[in-house]
Amino acid sequence: MNRYETIFIINPDLGDDETRSVIDKFTGIVGAQNGVQLKLEDWGRRRLAYKIRKFHQGYYVLLDFAGVPAGLAEFERNLKIDDRILRFLSVKTGENVDVEALKAEIAAKVKPQAEAGPTPEVSEEAPAQESVAASPAVAEEIPVAVEPETSEE
Questions:
Q1: Which residues partner with 62 through β-bridges?
Q2: What backbone torsions phi and psi does residue 145 show, to the nearest 5 degrees?
Q3: 100 touches 74 (CB < 8 A)
Q4: Which residues lie closer than 8 Å to 59 by C-beta, 6 or more apart?
Q5: Residues with Cβ < 8 Å from 67, sequence gap 6 or more?
């Protein structure tokens, strides 16, 4: 199996329910082709760099999955057919990937983030202040130019 990332842009005039159904349709196609969805990022409505089919905005979705090349071909064929898709781009990010290892890696990334929870901003600033105070040698290494005092009479 190869690993792929596909970004597709959905028609921005669709409602939330219909946009969700388009996303579900294409994630279902990946599963039907014996592919494994690794990550789905819903980037939301964004401004396009240039007009596509008279639209200035589009609804962006990133789908990271593992599958066989024939599965990717079927997935892209469906993207081309569907009128609700403005553009798409698929990129192969890895060859001969171990799907179980990828799932374990993703689960390991999600678990520490869920356990850590939100971090307060104060704790991020405190170590920076301690490191400056703990190393007084840094202040001694910087030469300071001192001008002699002149007295005017």
A1: 7, 41
A2: -85, 125
A3: no
A4: 9, 10, 11, 12, 14, 19, 44, 45, 46
A5: 1, 2, 4, 30, 33, 34, 35, 36, 75
At what angle are helices 16-32 and 69-81 packed, to 10 degrees?
150
The model carries a pTM of: 0.68
Identify the residue whose tokens are 């599958």: 67
Cα–Cα distance for residue pair 99/107, rounded to 1 Å: 12
The string of pLDDT tens digits covering residues 95-147 is 888 878 877 877 787 777 666 665 555 444 444 444 444 444 444 444 555 55
Residues 9-40: tens digit of each pLDDT: 999 999 999 999 999 999 999 999 988 898 89
